[in-house]
Amino acid sequence: MNEDRKRILDMLADGKITSDQAEMLIDSLGAPVEPVPAPAPSPSAGWPSGPSAGGTPKFMYVKVRSSGKDTVDVKIPLALLRAGLKLTSLIPPQAMEQINESMAASGMSIDFNNLKPEDIEDVIESLREMEVNIVSADGDNVRVFCA
Amino acid sequence: MNAVLWPLVIDVRVQERATDKRGVRIWFPFFILWPLLLLLVALVLVVSVIVDLALLASGARYHRYTLLVLSTMRLLSQTRGIHAHVDSDGSLVTVDIY
User: Fold this and answer.
1) What ipTM is given for this predicted complex?
2) How many domains does chain B have?
3) Which of A4, A97, A137, B69 is most buried, by CB atoms within 10 Å?
C-alpha cells in the first residue's frame, strides 16, 4: 500500500471524507497521467540570441519581452534599411525640410540632408556591433541587434 | 535580381490560444498584383522622366523624380524577409512577407 492510498484511508477512517470521495481519490491515483502537450515552438525560436560575431549582418532583430509574458519578435532585412536610407537622399529638398521639422518637433533632431549615399554602407556596417538592451524596473526587456 | 523582385506572398496568421485552436490564416498571393503594379510603375516612370527633363531644361536644382520612383520600387522589393510575431494576452499574430 503506498503512502497516498494510506493517507486517503486514514482520512476516511477519521471521517474527514465520505466513502464516495475516498473511492474517487483512490481511482484518481491509479489513473494514467495524461501527457501535457508541449507548447508549439515559437516562430522566432531559431533566431540568433545576439549580434553576430563576424560577417556582414543580414537582419535587424527587435525582441520585446514584457513581465506579463507578452512577446514581440520582429525581423527586418537590413537591405530594407539600406533602401530606405538611399530613398531619403532622393527626397525633394522641400519635402525633406518638412520631414526634418516634423522630426525636430517630436524631439528627434536628425538632419537627413547630411546623410550621403556613400555613408550608408558605413552606417549598415557599423550596425554589426550595435546592441540596444533595455531592462525596465518592472521586468520588461527590449533588445535590438543585427545579425 | 533581388532589387526588382517584389514580394511574392504575404502570410498573416491570427490565433487565439484559449478559444480558437486553428485561428485565421490569410495567405495573400501578392504576385497577382505584379502586372497591375508594372503597368502603374511604367506610367509613373514616363511622367517622372518628362518632369525630370523639364526641370533639367529649366535649370532646377532638383530633378531626380525618376530615381525616387525607382528607389521606392526597390524599397518595396526589400520588404521580402520581414517577419513579425506578436504574442499578447493569449493572441498570436504572425506576419511573414516572402
Assistant:
1) 0.79
2) 1
3) B69
Closest residue on chain B to A76 (Cα): B82
Residues of A in contact with B79 (CB under 8 A): 77, 80
Q: What's the predicted TM-score (pTM) here? A: 0.70
| DSSP per-residue string spanning A116-137 | -HHHHHHHHHHGGG-EEEEE-T
**A65 and A10 inside one domain:** no
Give me the phi and psi of B51, to 5 degrees please: -65, -45
**Residues A63 and A114 placed together within one structural domain of the fold:** yes
Domain with A133 in it: 59-146
Q: What is the pLDDT of residues A46-95, one digit of tens each?
A: 777 777 767 778 899 999 998 878 899 999 998 888 888 888 888 888 88
Which domain covers residue B8, as residue numbers?
A: 2-97
Interface of B with A in 2-31 (CB under 8 A): 2
Q: What is the pLDDT of residues B51-88, one digit of tens each?
A: 999 999 998 888 889 999 999 999 999 999 999 999 98
Q: What are the φ/ψ torsions at residue B38 (nearest 5 degrees)?
A: -60, -45
Task: Say if the Cβ atoms of B78 and A79 lie within 8 Å.
Answer: yes
